[in-house]
Amino acid sequence: MTPAELLEMNGRTTMPLVLLGEHDFDGRYDHVAIDNVQAAHDATSHLVSLGRTRIAAIGAQPDEEYSTPQQRTAGFESALADAGLAPVSIEAAAHYRRADGYQAARALLERDPRPDAIFCYSDLLAMGALRAVFDAGLRVPEDVAIIGIDDIEEGRYSRPHSAPSRSTRPSSPPAPSPASRPASTTRMPRPCSSWRRTPSSPARARSAADGRSLRRFRDAALRGAPQPARHAHPSGG
């Protein structure tokens, strides 16, 4: 959705609006997104902490208005600058698919010297890069370390698996205590109108009927009206 489309929709509705995704907007709307700059910075800093110095990246899209690639490029370059390093290369990727990661990694591995680490802008790109390193007869992470962003489930089952950046998606938090649990999560009892109690035996049915007769007898006595006759049940029932 473009800013122009948002303005048009905002003029036609008073419904509260919350935006999800990675586009940049002008701040007039509530917007939920990850910090792409910090995520890329953390992922690249992790590679630096492993002692890698020839670090490349895959995923740039300089011609796109979509802000995610630009933000992740900024985080990548910032982390390298903090470490006193320069990027080996920032390879473009038309799409964030395995094939794009594979092709870009093949090009990087033909360099001399080749990179000793690759930061991928998504896990799917990283999985394509993994295959390219394998096809080149190299090892991950011994020869080339690879890291991606997203932490998708598929990446956890690749062999070897790519190291995901989780800086913006922490692991599941501990369950809140009853005192801190939001009221909206409290399990409410089922309304009484949704169920009906049915006597489970003739004896219980008679007991319920006796109770109703006693109440009628009592009410009639209080009003001074003639008392209705009461019928006793045979013994042993």
UniProtKB/TrEMBL annotation:
Keywords: DNA-binding, Transcription, Transcription regulation. Residues 160-170, 180-206 have a biased composition (Low complexity). Residues 207-221 have a biased composition (Basic and acidic residues). Residues 45-161 form the Transcriptional regulator LacI/GalR-like sensor domain. Residues 156-237 are annotated as: Disordered. InterPro entries: LacI/GalR-like_sensor, Peripla_BP_I. This is Transcriptional regulator LacI/GalR-like sensor domain-containing protein. It comes from Homoserinibacter gongjuensis. The lineage of its organism: Bacteria, Bacillati, Actinomycetota, Actinomycetes, Micrococcales.
